[in-house]
Design brief:
With about 300 residues, the protein is an alpha+beta fold. About 30% of the residues lie in helices and about 20% in strands. Strands 1, 4, 5, 6, 8, 11 and 13 form a seven-stranded mixed beta sheet that branches. A four-stranded antiparallel beta sheet has the order 7-12-9-10.
């Protein structure tokens, strides 16, 4: 769902600079969360938008939202805009960085030499959840669009994971519930638990739990034939149920990883002709549900 910011709220937010944030380990410090909340809730209608956002992410049938912040992106410096977006994110859950070498917000640029199907690659980025091989993946993954692909590619794709699973046969679901899947490497990560290997895609005991899936495992992990076939069926159902849209500069996409999986269509061919500083750019931030929040935890 797309959430627009009323223009009177935009005007108020532009006049209300937020201070720099502080971190507590890899998490946004509680003091910064409270400071941002106090500042932002002093603007009329902020709480209404924050409630709309939370409902879009955790209410019935929900699971993702796009906050339209393009006017604020234009009016504010990069630093001030990032603080404001961090303030919106903190209304949903606790911002953190699983990568010790990265700041809170991680750049996703375009690298022509990288595996095309992976983050910052130029190819089709198949349906996945982020940090799929941690025992505690981030509850939310978020992407802030800074620059579009100037050549016109890079449509975002989203799919309701539980709806896709529900369309599979009982036999396939039984295979997906077995601890027979693995993907990627796991080292030097904060706040996402231990390495989970092998893992079940479906956690049978928890209907509101993660569908722990990445279609990238079909090509990059050794799986038994039967388990691979069930995973391929799931990947096909995800595509069948997908929604797609082009993020615009200043759009902030938040995905509840317990409900939706995400990906991205290929960038347009010819990326090597685009100067690095003009290529598509997103900023990524992860969120951990607050301990008090039963809806996502
Ligand atoms: O480039 C995109 O739009 C998505 C990237 C992504 O999903 C990731 O890096 O995990
Ligand atoms: Fe991702």
């Amino acid at each position: 769902m797309v959430i627009d910011i009323p223009s009177e709220l935009e005007v108020d937010l532009i006049d209300r600079p937020l201070p720099p944030w502080e971190l507590d380990g890899s998490f946004l410090a509680q003091s910064s969360m409270e400071e941002y909340r106090t500042e932002l809730t002093a603007t009329p209608r902020f709480e209404e938008i924050a409630a709309t956002l939370r409902h879009a992410l955790t209410g019935e049938g929900g699971g993702y939202a796009v906050l339209r912040l393009g006017n604020l992106a234009k009016a504010l410096s990069g630093v001030r805009f990032r603080r404001l977006v961090t303030g919106f994110a903190a209304e949903v859950a606790v911002p953190f960085s699983p990568f010790p070498r990265w700041p809170l917000w991680k750049d996703i640029g375009v690298k022509v030499d990288k595996d095309p199907g992976k983050s910052s690659g130029i190819g089709y980025n198949a349906f996945h959840m982020d940090l799929v091989n941690g025992t505690r993946p981030p509850d939310y993954t978020t992407l802030l669009c800074v620059r579009l692909d100037p050549l016109g590619g890079g449509t975002s794709i989203l799919s309701d994971a539980h709806a896709a699973v529900a369309r599979l046969s009982e036999d396939s679901r039984a295979l997906l519930a077995e601890s027979a899947y693995h993907y990627g490497t796991f080292f030097d990560l904060f706040g996402v638990g231990e390495e989970y290997k092998p893992f079940p895609i479906l956690d049978g005991s928890d209907p509101g739990g993660f569908v722990r899936f990445t279609a990238k495992m079909l090509e990059r992990s050794e799986l038994s034939q039967a388990h691979a076939d069930a995973a391929r069926e799931l990947a096909e159902e995800l595509v069948r149920g997908q929604v797609s849209f082009m993020l615009q500069p200043g759009d902030y996409l938040i995905v509840n990883q317990r409900r939706f999986l995400h990906g991205r269509e290929a960038l347009h061919s010819g990326q090597d002709t685009v100067p690095v500083a003009e290529r598509r750019l997103l900023l990524q931030l992860f969120l951990r549900a607050k301990a008090s929040d039963g809806s996502a935890a």
